[in-house]
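Collaborator request, handled under Task 6.
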Amino acid sequence: MSIPTLITFLVYLVGMLALGFAAYRITRSLSDYLLGGRRLGPVVAALSAGASDMSGWLLLGLPGAVYAAGLSQVWIAFGLIVGAYLNWRFIAARLRRYTELARDSLTLPDFLENRFHDKTRTLRIVSSLVILFFFTVYAAAGLVGGAILFEKSFGLDYHTALMVATGAIVAYTFLGGFLAVSWTDMVQGMLMLAALLVVPVIAIVELGGWGETIDRIAGQDAAYPDFFAGISVLSIISLTAWGLGYFGQPHILARFMAVRSSEDVPTARFVAMTWMSFSLLGAVLTGFVAVAVFAERPLPNPETAFIGLTQELFNPWVAGVLLAAVLAAIMSTVDSQLLVCSSALAEDLYRGVVRRGASEKELVWISRGAVIGVALVALGIALDPESRVLELVAYAWAGFGAGFGPAVILSVLWRRATRNGTLAGMLAGAAAVVVWAGLEGGVFDVYEILPGFLAGLAVNATVSLFGRPPRPEITAEFDRV
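Structure tokens returned to the collaborator:
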């Protein structure tokens, strides 16, 4: 174990806990705990959305995919950039305005219920259950990433590393809620970007320049530098379909709901897309140059490409800072996932269904208890050391994208959307993902988000069009937004 790396990690963790404690001191209500009182500035909202979106996948999963299969995996990054831009451009400002107008909705299930004036609470309950199912899997992916980091950095066994990672993430989320998550995400986002730019650049310099790097990589496999090697048009469509997931991610949509004003959205969009473009470029280059660096001694686990490069190229103090970026990526997403799950349990199920007269203080503590409960379930899923970050993320990302994506798009952009259409589409999209992913060997090698999203969109639109139209007060509210 490297003492300088350990010290760097400890300093970083203490800093994150200090931010969590500072947020704890000003968190008074459920709105504070779940949305930070809707007072995020555009830069904080943008970096928080980006950092909570990308997770350990950005520093572990994507570099690992490029290291294993070459630049043909870059189509994932392309799809994500397009999807994220469209989400910021067409959804963010409308959702910010609509959630405030629709009885100050604090969560996505809360918004869907209020948007369609659903007195049966069916939309709230079903959407909360979808969140709990897929986010628990998603959080497990983050815990696996944290375990890989501690395992490779400090020589801990997998299960011990998993416990350390879980404890670190849960602590400040439990304390400070949304403000703690957003403040830490901003710091973590800047650290992630710096690491992803520094590591591949230094690696290329050490290898003797870009030309030498390309020659070494081509010497391993001529297909590695080819964007189209070994993939069909259908495969490209499948990879770029990752971008569809953005429209249905509750932890990203929460940043839209929490931004200070819809007028701040253009600034936030510029910051978010700039950060995202450079971060994805760095992640792709990291996996790519790792092929050259480890040409003589291939990595047993491709998802350790970034970790391997930091340990190979930098002294322990610098490596500690860079490896803290991996922890930052993991923490910035898992904390958001735990918070959204706690909101589903406290706001959407406990106050919305079980105990409508619950006090603000009671709900905040129910939310904190839910953070621990969901973390324990995710921990159980992550106990398998053979788990792969990209596989777990892909499944959960598809579930949210197909389950909530069409519902969110149509609810804020289409006047004719109905409660029954939204409910049917949500169930169809989520079910299609589960069924498609469960088919042995897959179908046509197509990522399950594509059939799931199309199924959810088609069912939602069909049921809305041919069912009873929305009531006048619902369409009037839509027109005001």
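The cover message to the collaborator said: "The mean pLDDT is 83. Residues 158-207 form the longest helix (50 residues). Please let us know whether this matches your experimental observations."
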